[in-house]
Amino acid sequence: MPTAVVDRAGVPYQDREYWVSVLLMCEAAVACICCPIFGYIVDVSPTRQFPYLLGLILLGASMVLLSIAHTMNVFIVARLLQGGATAMVAVAGLALLTDSVAFDNLGQVIGYLGSSIALGFLLGPLLGGLIYDAAGYQAVFAMAFAIVGIDLLMRIAVIEKKVARQWLHEDSDSTHSHPASRPSRYNTFGNPSGPADSMPSTSKKPALLLIARQPRVLISSWALLVQGLLYSAFDATIPVFVESRFHWGPLGAGLTFLPSALTALFEPYFGHLSDRYGARKITVTGFTLLTIPLASLRFVEQNTPAHIALLLTLLTLTGLLINLCIPALYVETQQVLEDMEREQPGLFGKKGAVAQAFGVQTMAQFLGLFVGPLWGGFVEFQFGWKNMSWTLALLAGLTAIPMLWLSDDGHVVTMAERERLVNGPGA
């Protein structure tokens, strides 16, 4: 993008960072707005597959516009569509994933999803840069369209559990008699194959409002907002900092993020820890320890090997501690839904509210991605690197306090309890 906006849109070289930031903020803003809307669409759709494909259509449209763009207006429209595609894939993908795995293992599986996203972010700039240098701008989109085509085939090939049960003509009696074909955990949200349909108690209030009023949902969403803010604040400030302090170019700035990005590959293990020990212990520990590397960034001052090593180490620790918390935060909101449905079966109706819950969280995350460049860039420009460092550390420390109200391992619904919820008291 920095090269493309100069070569194709005629942006002055000295303004390229500004316009790239604008494009990133456009994508984050649209994704933030669309997340709760798409969450509702995903929940009311007969299957998760249709909105999942819709996200791919938006992505394809954005790729077409980017490939033909010669003005900043077209670049902006393309990034707006890409923000919508990002929101749809994030919400629908997480909902589809939770439909397919046991809740007791959800944190670890979300960790695998986080690692996959990290690999995408790592490979995208690398492959895009190599192909751009070797074959030009359009060759990059030839690769992109090939990937979209493969993605389309994989999404069409997805067979959801409830669709498979319809194909097998399983009635509720046969479903209860075969443990291997039991309905997913979200049948407790009023699926016709569960008992919630016989005890209708659907709230007249919108599910999104019910979810957003839950303190634990607000707390976990705030933590995800802070996570997005930290990432985007560094995206906005690190390239400028290493250029002015170490005299590094774009390649050096990009490589600076590599160690911290690689820490996302540990998310499956971090998810396993959250499944075992609960969200409270993981998040309190993560955000409390996060204050140390953030505050220590102020000591990076000179262009020496020791200070360069210190910067890379601190950024790596920051990435590690942020990724430690992410699976636990996503699972926490699903745990809230479990608790609400257990107290009032059928509260969210036949369709449930899984995707809407993820919509709230991803909205908070994208809001953080939008605010981060404003926070990091403004504080660093007006008050300097050291002041930006301690303000981010203070934010992380304050975020650790409400984490004490998240669920502990003793509050997790066991598999036996979930079976009773699905099959009735006599199960």
TrEMBL record:
Residues 1-411 form the Major facilitator superfamily (MFS) profile domain. The chain crosses the membrane at residues 18-40, 52-70, 76-97, 109-131, 137-158, 222-242, 248-270, 306-331, 352-376, 388-406. The keyword ATP-binding does not apply. It is a multi-pass membrane protein. Pfam families: MFS_1 (PF07690). PROSITE patterns: MFS (PS50850). Keywords: Membrane, Transmembrane, Transmembrane helix, Transport. Gene3D superfamilies: MFS general substrate transporter like domains. GO terms for molecular function: transmembrane transporter activity. It is found in: Membrane. It comes from the Eukaryota. Residues 170-201 are annotated as: Disordered. Belongs to the major facilitator superfamily. Vesicular transporter family. It comes from Aspergillus coremiiformis. This is Major facilitator superfamily domain-containing protein. PANTHER family: GH10249P (PTHR23506), TRANSPORTER, PUTATIVE (AFU_ORTHOLOGUE AFUA_2G10530)-RELATED (PTHR23506:SF29). GO terms for cellular component: membrane.
